[in-house]
Structures are given as structure tokens and as C-alpha cells.
Design brief:
With 344 residues, the chain is of the alpha/beta class. Helix content is 43%, strand content 16%.
Length: 344
């Protein structure tokens, strides 16, 4: 029985082009700044995102942490959405390592209202910490890969400018957002001061994320990356894959989105899940199990026994993620296996 892995787009294997590119990439020592393949990737990423400079990092988590550290000073407060990845899933690195306090705002499916942000910006008062940064996330993971509208990001940008605050985007899946909106990724990046995006998710690289921003910001970030132990040497073997990601793999994302929409429809037809086609913008599906006697973790265990892998969000919701290593046929097969479990 073939295993159908819908746990995350992080499970994607490198493409054959990546494996070839790794073996032929010119290499150097990136801590000395002389790995030509890393330099080429950083140049391409900054051009594609429309920012002055870029930095290759091992993970998105490190990219977000470094962005927070570079934009703030310890003791400040940062504003972020209550279900954001930085707040929920990055091991409180912002508290422990950046030394900042999180001020969370409840969004509407990941989207923060500018008026709520404005209320959270601290006025000058001897008792208060200083607000140092606003963080956004697009696509929004916990909101089921929902795309935050560009208009909302522009309004937040205006507000941040009025208060002289920087804005950082956790754009782990920024290319999915751009594909959904059918716009150049530059348009999204133009609404923020810095952005992190992942090469290792739908873009299929084995390892790697990028941070983009001004030259001054990236210079600071480079030093912080070294401090955190992320200064890699012949990182060109990874950058070679990243170049394939940026040149070829963004074309895969509309297929992943189409497959997710097809899966939502099939899950809906089983009558066993609450799913929303309107909220499934990209490659992430939040499916609420509506069968008595089953919890999401228990069901995830039963799916595993039937060769379908997914993650439970909580007691009720299961997350499925589509990506290049699952085909439409795999998805149809997964839903057949799922309905068999529940009907048995
Ligand atoms: N998300 C992973 C898990 O950590 C949950 C996943 O499978 O979705 N920002 C966002 C929005 C993310 O979804 C992730 C990874 C990250 C940052 C962190 O990236 P990595 O895993 O490279 O540290």
C-alpha cells in the first residue's frame, strides 16, 4: 500500500534537477562570503522579492527569530496575531533569545484589523514597554493556508509608518499567496520591511529559507545568523536546490492549490467533515471531524494504519497539506481510505 503523506509540504523530496544541481554547483565558504552559488541565490531572491538584499538560512524559524532580533531591542514588545506561527510554534524563541514580549491580537481567520493593532501600540508611559515591531503571516498556516488580502497589508503598512514601526512578514508560503492572488510576489513584499520565505516547503528544496530586506537589515541579520550558529560553509549545495526552487518550482503551486480544492470537495461529499472551499485558498486544508466517538488524534492514528498521513490540529480538526509529491489520484485514494475507516 502506497503511503500518502499529507502532513505538510515540508515533506517534499528534492527534484531530480536539484540533485543534479547539487553535484555541479560551484562552492566556496559562505562565512567568508565566497560561495558563488549562495551569492547567486541571495541575489536572485532579493531581485524576485524586490528588496535590496537577501540571506540564506537553514530554517524559517531561524529566519523569523533573526528578523525579530534585528528589528528590536530586548525589553520591547512586538505585535502579532494570536494564532501566528511565530507565537505558537517557534518555541518562544522571541522571548528567550530576542528578549521581547509578545502582544497578541485576535485576527479574523488570521487577518488583523488595523484598528486593533493601533490600540495595541504602546503610548509613551513610564510603566509600558516600547512597541518595536509588527509581525504578519501570509499565507496564514493556522487559518488553513488563507491568503491575507493585500489591502489589509497596505493598511497595516500605513499605520506602521505613522508610528515609525517596522513590519516583518512570516511569508513561509509567500509564493502560495502570490499564486492565489495571481500577482508578482514583489507586490506582497513591498508592503513590509522584511520577509522570510521557505524554499523547503512547496518549493521542494531539502533545506533552506530566505530573509529579505534592506542592505543594513541583512548585514545585521548575517551577524545574528553567525551568533546563532547558522553560518554555513559550502552551503552552495543547498543554494543550488534553492535556485531550482525559485526558477522552476513556483509553477507547481497552482496545481497544489487545485488538488487541495479537489480534496475539500471529496471530503465534503463523505459527509464526515466540516470543510470550507471558500476558506481553502491554497494548499492547506483544515477539516473538522463531525463523527461521534472520534477525536482528531485518534482518527489520525487510524489513517496512519491505512497509509494516509496527516496532523491533528487539536481534538477536532485535522490538517491536510497538498504538495508536489501527492497527485490528484493519490488524493482521491486518500479520501476513499478515509471514508472506509469512518464507515467501518
Ligand atoms: N511550519 C511547519 C510546522 O512547524 C507547523 C508546517 O508543517 O507547516 N512560518 C510558518 C507559517 C510555517 O508554517 C513554518 C513551518 C515556519 C514559519 C517555520 O519553518 P521551519 O520549519 O523551516 O523552521
Amino acid at each position: 500500500m502506497k503511503t500518502i503523506d499529507l502532513r505538510s509540504d515540508t515533506v517534499t523530496k528534492p527534484t531530480p534537477e536539484m540533485l543534479v544541481a547539487m553535484t555541479s554547483a560551484p562552492l566556496g565558504d559562505d562565512v567568508y562570503g565566497d560561495d558563488p552559488t549562495v551569492n547567486e541565490l541571495e541575489k536572485l531572491a532579493s531581485e524576485m522579492l524586490g528588496k535590496e538584499d537577501a540571506l540564506l538560512l537553514p530554517t524559517g524559524t531561524m529566519g523569523n527569530l533573526i528578523a525579530v532580533m534585528a528589528h528590536t531591542t530586548p525589553g520591547q514588545e512586538i505585535i502579532l496575531e494570536v494564532n501566528s506561527h511565530i507565537y505558537l510554534y517557534e518555541v518562544a524563541g522571541i522571548a528567550r533569545l530576542a528578549g521581547v514580549q509578545a502582544r497578541t491580537i485576535s485576527g479574523n481567520r488570521g487577518e488583523m484589523m488595523p484598528s486593533d493593532i493601533e490600540k495595541a501600540i504602546r503610548p509613551d508611559d513610564i510603566h509600558f514597554p516600547e512597541t518595536g515591531l509588527i509581525c504578519l503571516e501570509n499565507t496564514h498556516n493556522m487559518a488553513g493556508g488563507r491568503v491575507i488580502p493585500l489591502e489589509n497589508m497596505k493598511e497595516i503598512q500605513e499605520l506602521a509608518k505613522e508610528h515609525q514601526l517596522p513590519v516583518h512578514l512570516d511569508g513561509a508560503r509567500i509564493f502560495n499567496a502570490a499564486a492565489y492572488l495571481n500577482i508578482d510576489v514583489k507586490e506582497i513584499a513591498a508592503t513590509v520591511d522584511s520577509a522570510m520565505f521557505c524554499l523547503s516547503k512547496g518549493l521542494s528544496s531539502p533545506v533552506g529559507s530566505m530573509l529579505v530586506g534592506t542592505c543594513e537589515f541583512i548585514e545585521k541579520a548575517r551577524k545574528l545568523r553567525k551568533m546563532l550558529g547558522g553560518g554555513m560553509r559550502q552551503a552552495g549545495v543547498l543554494a543550488a536546490c534553492g535556485l531550482v526552487s525559485l526558477r522552476q518550482m513556483t509553477e507547481q503551486l497552482p496545481t497544489d492549490h487545485h488538488n487541495a480544492a479537489a480534496m475539500v470537495e471529496s471530503l465534503y461529499e463523505t459527509g464526515l467533515f466540516e470543510v470550507s472551499i471558500d476558506n481553502t485558498h491554497t494548499n492547506i486544508i483544515n477539516a473538522r471531524l463531525t463523527v461521534d466517538g472520534w477525536t482528531a488524534p485518534k482518527f489520525v492514528g487510524a489513517m496512519r494504519e491505512n497509509g494516509v498521513l496527516a496532523n491533528a490540529r487539536n481534538e477536532e480538526v485535522i490538517r491536510f497539506v497538498t504538495h508536489k509529491d501527492v497527485t490528484l489520484e493519490d488524493i482521491r485514494e486518500a479520501v476513499i481510505r478515509i471514508s472506509h475507516i469512518l464507515k467501518a
